[in-house]
Amino acid sequence: MSHRTPFPPADTATILAQLHASYGWQDVLSLNEELADGAESADGIIEECAKFATGVLEDLNGSMDAVGAKVVDGRVKTVPGHKDAWDQLAEGGWIALGHPAQYGGHEVPLSVWAAMQALMDRSCMAMMLPALMISASKLIHAWAEQDIKEEWLPKIAAGEWGATICLSEPDAGSDLGAIRTKAVKDENGDWRISGEKIWITYGDHDLTDRIGHCVLARDPDLPQGSAGLSLFLVPTKLEGEPDRNGVFTRRVEDKMGLKGSPTCAIGFENAKGFLMGQPGRGLSQMFVMITNMRLAVAIHGLGLASGATDTAWEYAAERRQGGKPGSPVPIIQHADVKRMLLDMRGRTEALRALIFAQANVVDIAAHTKDAEQKAEAEALASWLLPIVKTAGGEAAFDVSSIGVQVLGGAGYTKEWPIEQNVRDARVLPVFEGTTGMQALDLVHRRVLKGDGEGLRAFLRVAREAAAASPVEEARNLSAALDLLEDGAARMRELSPADANAGATEFLSLAIATAQGWVAARLTVADIEGETGEKLKEAARFVLSNVERLSRFHLDGALMGAARLGATA
Ligand SMILES: Cc1cc2nc3c(=O)[nH]c(=O)nc-3n(C[C@H](O)[C@H](O)[C@H](O)COP(=O)(O)OP(=O)(O)OC[C@H]3O[C@@H](n4cnc5c(N)ncnc54)[C@H](O)[C@@H]3O)c2cc1C
User: Fold this and answer.
1) What distance separates the 2 farthest-apart alpha carbons in the chain?
2) In angstroms, rounded to a whole number, what is the distance separating the alpha carbons of residues 87 and 91?
3) Helices (H), 413-452
4) Whose alpha carbon is nearest atom 2 of ligand 1?
5) I need a labelling partner for 25 at 20 to 30 A (CA). Which of 17, 143, 264, 381 fits?
6) Alpha helices of 256-370 — where are they, by DSSP H?
7) What is the pTM of this model?
8) 327: which strand partners?
9) What is the residue-wise DSSP string for 159-210?
10) In angstroms, what is the span from residue 481 Cα to ligand 1's centroid?
């Protein structure tokens, strides 16, 4: 591979300042001793992680992209250096971070795990397997029998065994009710799984001895649709048995980006599976994993967006064009370039603050003993999840693309890492539920149905932040929050077809106001020096846009279905 300029070192001072100022952080510190201890080591973890990511993962990022994972003799072979980096991740304890201490993990607040994972993703998003593994670990912890937990959780935390989420099939993408993979009991009472799954991230690889596939499969004795789905752990290998457990690699996809992350078609041929939880409850139980994976999508997005943002700011301070003849000026001095740079930083830092806020409220909801605080945290976490997932996925692509624009022709070449970011980022609004599906989820489950508590919880905290902010631009947030409240009421009056037609625009309105909320919080955060100034400048930029963007998206949300012709 030709020489590639590395990303600038990650700005750990900003990450730590944001973490300490994040919504809910102070409450997380008082939840229990384990989390408080984990929080105490956060600063050291983040500093060390930044060094590890730059030193070990960054070179691999380019070679993963250039070479890609391949199938050799029916098994996936990862790119040279991948296994070595994996072993270093495991030995350094990075995979164990956030896993339960009882099973060999190192417990830390979810926001500390998020900060660590984003640093890894910034250097090499294709090394995304640990995010899958921690999500699978939460699923197994929640639903598996005790013997399975004891067998699998320590191995996953140690990085010795891998894990996947196995949902998609050729006829079942967004519509998981169409899953056909079958689960039947054999004469010994064991579950046997047969079917074809596609697009399975790290569905096969040579990094670990064994892989545990978390599979949704259909019990033919149960009703059709999602009520017939049960959840299974299907290992690639069973203890004491020499052969593979009826799990076969059909192919690895040739993709636009993330080439080092093997996306596999996997065949199950009478493979032994272990039921987790209740028969027929598979899809709802799977949401333990899906919820964490959606947060992980936002974190992957933050990693990519932050790398692009820092690269663009550094480049713009060096590159000289324009100005007086014979004395060109750094392009950062041009208004249009400064606009792009502030847009990049504003979106990136708002995303960081939103991810930390979401992680904190998830921790509070899981651990608080105060019923009122729990209800409030659950409502807010539920409102924010589709917002954070989508904001992260879209920011990764948009911010990286603006980064190419700041670098001009250089940004389009492989001499700089941003063009890879654009390609790697594009999948984030697609997997773990497309943007369209997140929008329907927000509108149908959180606005049209239910008691509206999620929206009310959000409006409460966001209005508080707007009122507390001393900056002129915060008035835009107050206006935008009125538009959101009014927009939600008007969505409830629409026909289902009109609401569906406006759902994605409504989600964009919700994202704009959520970014405004965390930006307003940053304008009053007690963050000193250059870091504080940088964050406040970015926050004011976000706030300067929030009302006009909200108005634009609200208009789109209410346009109705008629202009689209016949729709389902
Ligand atoms: C790199 C990569 C890795 C992946 N990893 C995994 C994995 O590890 N495990 C796994 O199980 N899957 C994985 N997937 C699959 C991924 O989750 C699906 O691609 C995604 O859920 C969308 O499904 P689909 O591709 O079938 O698109 P479709 O469902 O066909 O959707 C296509 C378009 O139609 C829209 N649409 C579909 N239904 C509706 C509806 N009812 N209303 C409105 N709009 C609708 C969608 O929003 C989208 O824009 C991965 C995919 C990729 C590309």
Assistant:
1) 86
2) 6
3) 418-425, 435-440
4) 199
5) 143
6) 282-318, 335-367
7) 0.98
8) 324
9) TSEEEEEE--BTTBSS-GGG---EEEE-TTS-EEEEEEEEEEETSS-SSSSE
10) 31
H helix or E strand, kind and range, residue 322: strand 320-324
pLDDT tens for each residue of 333-378: 999 999 999 999 999 999 999 999 999 999 999 999 999 999 999 9
Two structure tokens written together for 87: 């072993």
Contact 92, 84 (CB under 8 A): no
Q: Is the pLDDT of residue 3 over 90?
A: no
Rounded to an integer, what distance in angstroms lies between the CA atom of residue 340 and that of residue 296? Answer: 26
CA distance 405 to 411: 7
432 catalytic per annotation = yes
Taking the C-alpha atoms of residue 262 and residue 202, their distance in angstroms, rounded to an integer, is 5
Q: Are 176 and 103 spatial neighbours (Cβ–Cβ below 8 Å)?
A: no
For helices 42-52 and 33-40, the axis angle rounded to 10 degrees is 50
CA angle 450, 455, 460 (to 5 degrees): 135
**Average pLDDT value over all residues in the chain:** 97
Atom 20 in ligand 1: residue holding the nearest Cα: 431
- Amino acid occupying residue 248: F
φ and ψ of 183, to 5 deg: -125, 115
Amino acid at the residue 262: P
3-class SS at 132?
helix
Distance CA 21, CA 524 (A): 10
